[in-house]
Design a protein that fits this description.
The protein is an all-alpha fold. It has a single domain, classed as Trp Operon Repressor, Chain A, CATH 1.10.1270.10. The protein contains six helices and no strands. Helix 3 crosses helix 5. It is globular and about 40 Å long.
């Protein structure tokens, strides 16, 4: 169980954004919202970061991930740092995605 988290970015506008995201019910609704609020490049970057976090969690090496994704080792290192020392956001999502895929 995760303890209380004190975010460095927390404010009313971000609370409202996240509350809105939590109201989305389908993948199609997510596509519609994120295509309106983000650029295609931003969405693809977020998806790629999550993919890399999953590969790291599966104990893939940096060179394997670099070869598979084309992402630099500096980016992989940044994601690894967040995965190991961040706010546990990647771990929450990865655990929940694994639960639904089993």
């Amino acid at each position: 169980m995760l303890g209380k988290y004190n975010s460095q970015i927390k404010d009313e506008q971000i609370d409202r954004l996240f509350e809105g995201i939590l109201k989305l019910r389908t993948i199609e609704e997510c596509y519609r919202f994120f295509e309106d609020i983000c650029t295609v490049k931003e969405i693809k970057s977020m998806a790629q970061r999550l993919e890399i976090a999953g590969l790291l969690a599966d104990n893939k090496t940096y060179s394997e991930i670099e070869k598979e994704t084309g992402v630099s080792t500096a980016t992989i290192s940044r994601i690894n740092r967040a995965l190991n020392y961040g706010a546990d956001g990647y771990r929450i999502i990865l655990e929940r995605l694994n639960r639904t895929q089993k």
